[in-house]
Design brief:
Number of domains: 1
Strand content: 15-25%
Strand order of the largest sheet: 1-2-3-4-5-6-7-8
Bound molecules: SN-glycerol-3-phosphate
Structural class: alpha/beta
CATH topology: TIM Barrel
Length: 220
């Protein structure tokens, strides 16, 4: 299982990577724009925080295969452990195929249907990123898409992993993991909701109070 943080917020990455055993950080052009650092500045900053063994994902902006490939090669040179995100559209499949032939690792992104994800995987993507909440928000069923896509990958492209993305609630993340997705990328606010445990906090305070009543201090 792999957990990624979907953010360019360096403080959030620092805070959450100390609590969660993250596999790395994912970004997209909107996320990078929010952080205001261009990728050649941002990626080394993220790398310094998460260390050498984690993976960073960065996305191409180009729309045509040749320019997608050039941009992917540029991004790939910016960081030693980068996976290039390529939109899973027709030109993206061509770019994924060409990059796969050059051993550049790719993720097919902006997946809104199981077949689209299977095509990206078949073209050679190591990961595919179904957009769970964005599909839910347009009247679709994001979890059902992840379940079908996982079944298709198990049957036809078992070396490709789902990296489920676009979450607004902890239960969307849970349902993707239950559907068999090997990886999820979580925005910091959803990660904080998943880490919050009010009922457990109450139980721990009760333990403390009971102990203090009898022993007067908290040393065992
Ligand atoms: O990184 C891509 C994906 O996570 C987009 O998420 O929150 O913008 O729907 P969101």
């Amino acid at each position: 299982m792999e957990i990624y943080l979907d953010t360019a917020d360096l403080d959030a990455i620092e805070e959450l990577s100390e609590i969660l055993p993250i596999a790395g950080v994912t970004t997209n052009p909107s996320i990078v724009a929010t952080g205001k650092h261009p990728l050649n500045v941002l990626l080394p900053k993220i790398r310094r925080i998460i260390g050498p063994s984690c993976t960073i994902f960065a996305q191409v902006l180009a729309r045509e295969p040749e320019s997608m490939i050039d941009e992917a090669l540029y991004l790939n040179d910016l960081d030693p452990k980068l996976v290039v995100k390529i939109p899973a559209i027709a030109s993206g499949f061509a770019a994924i195929m060409a990059l796969s032939a050059r051993s550049v690792r790719t993720l097919g992104t902006a997946i809104y249907s199981p077949m689209q994800g299977l095509f990206a995987a078949h073209a050679g993507a190591c990961y595919v990123a179904p957009y769970v909440n964005r599909l839910d928000a347009t009247g679709g069923d994001g979890i059902k898409m992840v379940q079908s896509l996982q079944k298709l990958l198990d049957l036809h492209e078992p070396s490709c992993s789902i990296l489920a993305a676009s979450f607004r609630t902890p239960s969307q993340v849970l349902d993707c993991l239950l559907a068999g997705a090997r990886a999820v990328t979580i925005p910091p606010d959803v990660a904080r909701q998943m880490l919050a445990s009010p009922a457990v906090d109450v139980a721990i305070e009760r333990f403390e109070k009971d102990w203090l009543k009898v022993f007067g201090n908290l040393s065992a």
